[in-house]
Specification:
Elements lengths: L4 E6 H11 L4 E4 L6 H7 L6 E4 L3 H13 L4 E6 L2 H4 L1 H10 L5 E7 L13 H7 L3 E2 L4 H18 L3 E6 H5 L1 E6 L14 H4 L3 H24 L3 E4 L2 E9 L1 H9 L3 E6 L1 E3 L3 H10 L2 E5 L5 H8 L5 E2 L14 H6 L20 H11 L3 E3 L16 E3 L5 H13 L3 E6 H17 L4 E7 L28 H8 L3 E5 L4 H13 L3 E7 L14 E2 L18 E3 L5 E3 L19 E2 L1
Parallel strand pairs: 2-3, 2-4, 4-5, 5-7, 6-7, 10-11, 10-13, 13-14, 15-16, 15-17, 17-18, 18-20, 19-20
Antiparallel strand pairs: 1-8, 6-12, 9-11, 21-24, 22-23
Helix pairs in contact: 1-2, 1-7, 3-5, 5-10, 15-19, 16-17
The structure holds thiamine diphosphate.
Length: 570
C-alpha cells in the first residue's frame, strides 16, 4: 500500500486543504489574524477561485452568491469580521444554500491580536445554523467535507469555529485527492432566494424545522464522541479545551463535542447517565454550560472569571477546583512600530501640533502608545473617520481622524461620504503604506494586485476622495515631516473638510535600506527631542548621548528632521 502523503500544516492550512479536497470552487475573505492563512493557502490552488474582498460583508455576500449560483463556496474571517458580515449572515440562514456554503470563524481568546475576544459559537445559535468545533489541524481538515455534505443535505450555511491555538498550531496532516464536484448551476426560486417579508416568514418556518432535523443529526454525528474511562469523573468539552482536558485528566471520561450546535441533548443525557461527577470545560462564553444547565443535569463548571482570556493546560486544576482565575500581568514586550515605519513621521507631527486624533485599527494603532501617545480612540475598522466626525461635531476644529489604506477601503469610504454630506470640517489622514501591513502585507484594491498575484485595476485613493466631495486632497511623503507639519497645521484649522494621503510604502514591502543616520556627538545638546519619535533604532546612552543601532536603522531620517543642532545627519 502506498504511504499516505503527509504535510506539516497549521489549522488554517489544513482547513484550506480539506476545502480544496472537498471540491471547493470559490472562496472570499478579508484578512484578519488568526484566519488570514486560510485564503492565502486556498489562493495557491489553481482550481479555486479565491479573492480578497474589500471587507467581510462583501466577502460573505460574494461567496454566498457563488453558492446560490451553484459553486461550493467558503467565507472566512476573524471573529470580529463576522460583525461586519452579520447582515447577510442572519438572512442567509433563512435562504439556505444551493451548493455547499462553509463559514469559518477564527476566534481569538486571549486577544493575541484583536480588539475584543467575542465567542462566535454564540453566532451559530443566534443565526440558527450548525456549528462544528475541530480541536486540531487534522480535525479542521477532516470536518470540511462533512460540513459541505451537511450544508447541502440540510440546505444551510455551516459555521466552523477555530481559535488561535488551532489556527496557528501545526501538525502532520494526511493529504488526499481533490474530489470533483460538478457546479450545480442556478434555478430561479424567488420564494427561497428573494427575502421579502412574505417569503422570509415561510423560510423562517423552514429554518425552525431544519434545526430540529439538525439536532437529530448532531445526536449521531461522528464528530461527537464519548471516550469512556473512569466513570466517577466525566468532562463535557469542545474545541481546543478538549486537548487540555485530555492531557491534564488522562483517566477521565470525556464527551467531546465536535458538532456542538444544535446541542445533542440525548447524547448529553446518555453521557450524564453514565458518569457521576460532570465538569464542563470550555473557553470564553458558558455556552455548553448553559445548555447542560437547561437540561437540568447536575454539573460543575469553571469559575466565571475563566470566561475571560485563553485557557491553558496549566489552568485545568483551577478550573476543576472552581477557583477564581488569577490574572497575571503580561510580561511580553510591548509592540512597537518598525524602524522606518512611515506612520511614525506623521505621528511625530501630530504629537508636536498637540491635535486631538481619532484612530483606527492597523499597525498605526501603535501610535496610541508612548512616547507618541497620539491616538485617543480605537474602536473598530472604519471608526477612525466616523469617530472623527462625532468628535468634530462635539469639539469643533482641531480634530484629526487617521485611518490606514486597507482600512479606508474596508469601511472608511462611507464615513468620508457621511462627513462630507453632514458638513463636517477638519482633517482626515489616510496613512497609505500601500499594503495591509498589520495582517502580513496582503494586497487590496488600492495596491493594484489580487491575492493570486495578478495585476488588477488600481483604485486611486485621491480620485476617490475628491469624488466623495473632500474640499482638499493632498498627497505627500510620510517622511517629509516639515512639509507635513505645515499642511496639517493649516488643514486642521480650515473651514473645510480635507483629506491628506501620506503615501510611503511599508518597510516590509519596500526593503530598501538607506545608510543609517549618523550621530555627531559635538552637536548633541541631550534635549531628547529625537527620542520623542519613538524609533527602536535610537536609545539614550548612560552619558546622555544618543546611540544608533545601525542594524535597525533603515535611513528614514525622521529623527534627524527633529534635531535642530545637526547631531543626527542623514
Ligand atoms: C472587522 C475586522 N476585520 C479585520 C481585522 C484585522 N485587521 C486589523 S487592521 C487591518 C488592516 C490594516 O491595514 P491598513 O489599514 O492598511 O493599516 P496598516 O496595518 O498597513 O498600517 C486588518 C485586516 C479587524 N481587526 N477587524
Amino acid at each position: 500500500m502506498k504511504n499516505p502523503d503527509i504535510k506539516f500544516l497549521s489549522g488554517d492550512e489544513a482547513l484550506a486543504q480539506g476545502a480544496y479536497e472537498a471540491g471547493l470552487a470559490f472562496a472570499a475573505a478579508y484578512p484578519g489574524t488568526p484566519s488570514t492563512e486560510i485564503l492565502e493557502t486556498l489562493a495557491k490552488f489553481p482550481e479555486v477561485n479565491a479573492q480578497w474582498s474589500v471587507n467581510e460583508k462583501v466577502a460573505y455576500e460574494v461567496a454566498f452568491g457563488a453558492s446560490i449560483a451553484g459553486l461550493r463556496s467558503l467565507y472566512a474571517s476573524k471573529h470580529v469580521g463576522f460583525n461586519v458580515a452579520m447582515d447577510p449572515l442572519m438572512t442567509s440562514a433563512y435562504i439556505g444554500v444551493n451548493a455547499g456554503f462553509i463559514l469559518v470563524t477564527a476566534d481569538d481568546p486571549g486577544l493575541h491580536s484583536s480588539q475584543n475576544e467575542q465567542d462566535n459559537r454564540l453566532l451559530a445559535k443566534f443565526a440558527k445554523i450548525p456549528l462544528l468545533e475541530p480541536s486540531s489541524p487534522s480535525e479542521a481538515k477532516a470536518c470540511v467535507p462533512y460540513a459541505f455534505t451537511l450544508s447541502e443535505t440540510f440546505d444551510t450555511p455551516v459555521l466552523i469555529r477555530l481559535t488561535t491555538r488551532i489556527a496557528h498550531t501545526k501538525e502532520n496532516v494526511e493529504i488526499g485527492e481533490r474530489q470533483h464536484v460538478q457546479p450545480r448551476g442556478f434555478t430561479p426560486n424567488p420564494a427561497k432566494y428573494v427575502m421579502v417579508p412574505g417569503h422570509a416568514f415561510r423560510r423562517h418556518i423552514e429554518l425552525e424545522k431544519r434545526l430540529v432535523r439538525l439536532q437529530e443529526e448532531a445526536e449521531a454525528s461522528p464528530l461527537n464522541r464519548m471516550e469512556m474511562n473512569d466513570l466517577s469523573f466525566g468532562i463535557i468539552t469542545s474545541g481546543v479545551s478538549y486537548l487540555y482536558a485530555r492531557e491534564m485528566f488522562p483517566t477521565a471520561s470525556i464527551l467531546k463535542l465536535g458538532f456542538s450546535y444544535p446541542f445533542p441533548e440525548k447524547l448529553i443525557r446518555n453521557f450524564a447517565g453514565q458518569v457521576k461527577d460532570i465538569l464542563i470545560i470550555e473557553e470564553l462564553e458558558p455556552m455548553l454550560e448553559e445548555e447542560v444547565a437547561r437540561l437540568g443535569i447536575k454539573h460543575r463548571a469553571r469559575h466565571p472569571s475563566f470566561r475571560i482570556g485563553e485557557l491553558r493546560p496549566e489552568d485545568m486544576p483551577a478550573v476543576n477546583a472552581g477557583q477564581e482565575r488569577v490574572f497575571e500581568t503580561p510580561t511580553t514586550r510591548k509592540p512597537v512600530m518598525c524602524p522606518g515605519c512611515p506612520h511614525r513621521g506623521v505621528y511625530s507631527v501630530l504629537k508636536k501640533l498637540k491635535l486631538t486624533v481619532t484612530g483606527d485599527i492597523g499597525c498605526y494603532t501603535l501610535g496610541a502608545l508612548p512616547p507618541l501617545s497620539v491616538i485617543q480612540t480605537c474602536v473598530c475598522m472604519g471608526a477612525g473617520i466616523t469617530m472623527f466626525e462625532g468628535f468634530s461635531k462635539a469639539l469643533g476644529k482641531g480634530v484629526v481622524g487617521v485611518i490606514g489604506d486597507s482600512t479606508f477601503v474596508h469601511s472608511g469610504i462611507t464615513g468620508l461620504v457621511s462627513a462630507v454630506y453632514n458638513n463636517t470640517k477638519g482633517l482626515i489622514i489616510i496613512l497609505d503604506n500601500e499594503t495591509t501591513a498589520m495582517t502580513g502585507t496582503q494586497p487590496h484594491p488600492a495596491t493594484g494586485e489580487t491575492i493570486k498575484g495578478v495585476p488588477a485595476k488600481r483604485l486611486i485613493l485621491e480620485d476617490l476622495c475628491r469624488a466623495c466631495g473632500a474640499d482638499h486632497v493632498d498627497v505627500m511623503s510620510a517622511y517629509d515631516t516639515p512639509g507635513l507639519e505645515k499642511i496639517i497645521k493649516e488643514r486642521a484649522q480650515e473651514d473645510a473638510l480635507s483629506v491628506l494621503i501620506t503615501r510611503t510604502p511599508c518597510k516590509l514591502i519596500d526593503r530598501v535600506k538607506k545608510s543609517p543616520v549618523r550621530f555627531i556627538a559635538e552637536g548633541c545638546r541631550q534635549c531628547g527631542l529625537c527620542l520623542n519619535v519613538g524609533c527602536p533604532a535610537l536609545s539614550k546612552t548612560e552619558s546622555g548621548f544618543i546611540h544608533i543601532d545601525k542594524n535597525l536603522c533603515v535611513g528614514c531620517y525622521v529623527c534627524s528632521s527633529y534635531c535642530k543642532f545637526g547631531a543626527l545627519k542623514p
